[in-house]
């Protein structure tokens, strides 16, 4: 039985029934991942207004405001409410990702700061997870996060957050004069920048698989290795785009809708991630909360 099968089996046996839970694939556990001895930079500090070091250049200095009423009513993290259950859950979920991002080189993970959020089929909670992860990590004083809406066929990050929809990734990848700085949106969260998906394009898969995209990812993982880049993506079994993206990142979060997505579907989807060093499975929409979490991390 593969480590994924074991993890899924364990999830089934645990009869999870609320909240968001992580399961993990084959994990050489290290104490720092599971315990409390995190590097101080991964402990959650209070958000502050202190000036951070310069982010990736942003051409437009407008600061996008989020639709907090919508976000709150749909269960998203509100940075000012640090004791929210969802905030607590994402503190645990982000921890191994952030530790890997910081220690990628010594752990042998290439592009560890680049995280793809995907799932097998539509509606499992990818955008919910990508946005909450981004808000949660950006709430840390010393972290800078770039959230990229790479679900170019069915974008939703801008709609959910209530911010501008374009120009975005597609306009940049078309390569007709749009610079990367032109598509980054500053937001009211100091450490969080967003790249919208941009316009619809009939060759969006080809654009995501283009040299311009892989050059961009090289730059984001090399020159901006201290920034965490999160990609929201389409489902793995619906199109080839997520598979293409998975080859460009160092870590993948595989969102699985509890008690809905069949195990064979998940296994079929995970086969498409064979080239990925690190895959973290996240069991979403379970009915029981934090008390049933079990954590860990590793390489699949
Ligand atoms: N843990 C959760 N708690 C509450 N609501 C959730 C949770 N996860 C997802 N949802 C809700 O489920 C719906 C689908 O979530 P979301 O849009 O994130 O899925 P998706 O995987 O991105 O879908 P798509 O494949 O269509 O892009 C949304 O209404 C979202 O608000
Ligand atoms: Mg989505």
Question: Can you give a write-up of this model?
Answer:
The protein is of the alpha/beta class. It has a single domain, classed as P-loop containing nucleotide triphosphate hydrolases (Rossmann fold, 3-Layer(aba) Sandwich). The chain is 35% helix and 17% strand. The chain has 13 helices and nine strands. The chain has helices at residues 3-14, 31-34, 68-73, 85-102, 104-107, 126-138, 157-161, 169-174, 180-183, 204-208, 211-222, 241-246, 263-271; strands at 18-24, 63-64, 114-119, 144-149, 185-187, 192-195, 227-232, 251-257, 278-287. Strands 1-9-8-3-7-4-6-5-2 form a nine-stranded mixed β-sheet, with helices on both faces. Helix 13 (263-271) links the parallel strand 8 (251-257) and strand 9 (278-287). Helix 4 (85-102) crosses helix 6 (126-138). The longest helix has 18 residues, at 85-102. The chain is globular and about 45 Å long. The protein starts with a helix and ends in a 13-residue tail after the last strand. Bound molecules: adenosine-5'-triphosphate and magnesium ion.
What's this model, at a glance?
By secondary structure, this protein is an alpha/beta fold. The chain is 35% helix and 17% strand. The protein has a single domain, classed as 3-Layer(aba) Sandwich (Rossmann fold).
As for the number of domains, it is: 1
**Major sheet strand order:** 1-9-8-3-7-4-6-5-2
Shape: globular
CATH architectural type: 3-Layer(aba) Sandwich
In this entry the ligands are: adenosine-5'-triphosphate, magnesium ion
Distance between the termini: 13 Å
Q: Residue-averaged pLDDT, rounded?
A: 82
Instruction: Kindly name the structural category.
Output: alpha/beta
Strand content: 15-25%
Oligomerization category of the chains in this entry: single chain
Radius of gyration of CA atoms, rounded to a whole number: 18 Å
Largest sheet properties = 9 strands, mixed
The helicity comes to: 25-40%
Tell me the number of helical segments per DSSP (H or I, 4 or more residues long).
13
- What is the count of β-strands? 9
